[in-house]
Amino acid sequence: MPERYRIQFPQADSQKLGQDEIFFTLIEDGKEKRLRFHDYNEIYKRPGLYEQLFYDRLRCNSPAKVADLLQRALNTVREPVTELRVIDLGAGNGMMGEVLKREGVARLVGADIIPEARDAAYRDRSTVYDDYYVHDFANLDNDVHDELREWHFDCLTCVAALGFGDIPPRAFFNAIKLIRTDGWLAFNIKETFLDHTEHTGFSRLVRELIFSKYLDIYHLERYRHRLSMEGTQLFYYALVGRLTASIPEGFLEQYGIED
Ligand SMILES: C[S@@+](CC[C@H](N)C(=O)[O-])C[C@H]1O[C@@H](n2cnc3c(N)ncnc32)[C@H](O)[C@@H]1O
What we know:
Elements lengths: L5 E3 L14 E6 L2 E6 L3 H5 L4 H9 L4 H15 L8 E5 L5 H9 L3 E6 L2 H10 L6 E4 L7 H8 L5 E4 L10 H8 L7 E7 L10 H10 L4 E13 L5 E11 L7 H4 L5
Parallel strand pairs: 4-5, 4-7, 5-6, 7-8
Antiparallel strand pairs: 1-2, 2-3, 8-10, 9-10
Bound molecules: S-adenosylmethionine.
């Protein structure tokens, strides 16, 4: 039986806070500790806390949803998931990796910016990833970049990790550039990122990609990502697309997209 934690949500309505400012209280050894949802290092250090918070209590459903749409896209073109060579960006402690592994992908490499994510993935899901890179993908060293290319990835997954002070456009773009020209992208984004009134670099990158000649969209589905602390439904889009050509290096600059 995994350890259960005493978690308290704040009295005040947290809906007005930015998604990266939302916090909860963890009661440990009689002491109260306030943690933000984005204090991933503190959360991953405690086995099962991430799962209890986001998956049990807030009913996150995104790895299953994104993996299901990816599987359906592969079915459409009659390609087996078992040949897929996947890099899972913002992999965290391996929730998406676990689903992909179960589906039998050929290679699965995790990537995250904090070592606590890799440590937690190896601790809690030791057989899921073939390798796990801890690097800032916005600034990859040449050596690491060359090493990553040797995996010959044909699929990038990225779940619950884009925007909001998580993965910036440059890091996502650099990861896309590691994928074969006819490879797959499978990720989710907050629904407002598709709204043309939203001008963050990330939402513009996604919109430009969707309408570009470099990506064929197979699935774009609005679904319930999880609940908020107030119990309201948070909707995201899950997107699965296939690259059709190499995206030019200057794509971000061309559209004035900054991190
Ligand atoms: C909400 S978690 C999602 C984890 C996992 N994909 C899941 O669905 O449960 C977001 C993850 O993105 C990672 N992250 C944030 N910024 C990043 C960056 N610039 N590069 C890589 N990973 C990043 C965080 O460390 C965290 O592990």
